[in-house]
Please model this.
Amino acid sequence: MADLAKLVEEISALTLLEAAELVKALENKLGVSAAAPVAMVAGAAPAAVEAEPEEEQTEFTVVLKDFGPKKIEVIKVVRQITNLGLKEAKELVEGVPSNVVEAVSKEVAEDTKAKLEAVGAVVELK
Model:
C-alpha cells in the first residue's frame, strides 16, 4: 500500500492545472465522476436551510366559517367578545366567513375559538 502521507504531500505540491489533469486521469482509470460528490453536497445545502426554525406566529385572527345550528347563541357570543351592537353582530355572523377578532394573542384567539365552538360555530385561526 502507498504511503498516504507522502501521497498527500505530492498532491498538495501540484499546480491547479496538474490537479485537474490528475482528477481526469483518476476518473478515467476508476470509471467514476468527481462531480457526483459535489452534487451531493449541493443537494444537502437546502436541507440545512430548511432546518432553521420558523418564527412563531404571535398575532392571530379568529375567522367564523359557519354559525352552525344556533345562530342566536353565536350572535350573543360575538357581541360578548367584540362589544358590537346587535345589528353589527348579526351582520358579522350572517356574513360568514368573517373575522371576529384580528391581531390578538394566541391565548385570546384560542379562548374566542373555544367560546364560539361551544355554541356550535365552526371557527378557524389564522
Remarks:
- Residues 60-125 form a domain with the Ribosomal Protein L30; Chain: A, fold (CATH 3.30.1390.10).
